[in-house]
Structure formats: structure tokens, C-alpha cells
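Protein modeling request. Please complete all fields; requests missing the sequence field cannot be processed.
Requester role: graduate student
Desired output: 3D structure, C-alpha cell encoding
Chains: 1
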Amino acid sequence: MAEAFANRLSNGRVHAYSAGSHPLGYIVPETLAVMDEKGITLEGQWSKSLGEVPLHAMDVVISMGWEVSSPALASFEGKKIQWSIPDPYGDDLTGYREVRDMIEEHVKSLLSDLNAPDKEKRIKASAPTTGSSGESKKGQRGPVRKPS
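Delivered output (148 residues):
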């Protein structure tokens, strides 16, 4: 969700990726449904591992989960941000909508803070839950990646 919001709301100023340490391999239907309600398709996106995104080329890394860490992120030298967004995995659509709306507000705030009119920023949002990005088991990271 964060990747889709960042890429859409930045109007091309930001190139966001989402990745995790234990991707499920697909986006759960609840995530697809609540993003569709916002008019955002996740077509062409799928879960990716941290090793499948260009972490070395990113300016900012966002950890969305509580108490989720990754050795790949330990060596990251750019800006690190913690959002602590809950995992809606297993919730009904209301829970997914609440998380979606939280993510959207965080992304809007981040984009405002970055104020990147001329420089493409590469952002990786790693979501620890199936609900946030819809890709992994609860308590693990799951990525969604924008296709090339």
C-alpha cells in the first residue's frame, strides 16, 4: 500500500519500493479491495524480498512494523524512519481500511517532508504484515514492488 501511495501521490518525484524479509509471494485480496476503493490498482505489483530491491540506491528506508528488524537494513546509511503501523492480516475489511488510511496519511506527510521537486528519491517501505502490503505472514515483512 505504501509503495502504491508514494508512487502515485508524488507525481513522479519519488520512486518507492516495498520489500520484506519473508515475502508471501502475492498480495492478499483484502489489500487489493481496499486500494481499489481509493482508485489505486496494484496490478503488476507482487511481494519481493529485501534482496530484490535496490536498497543501496535509496535515500530513505521506512520500517512499518513493530519490533521487526532486518540485517539488510543494519548497514543502510541513509535516513531511517519508523512508522509502527499495525498489521491488519486476518482482520476484516474495516481493519484493512483503517491501516490503508493510516499509511496514506503517513505517506502524504513523508512526501511533504521530503519536498523533492527536482530530485528523484528512492524510498523503500518495508511492511511487516500481510495487511499493510498484503504479502507475508503476520509479523514478517512483505514487499510490493512497482514493475519496471
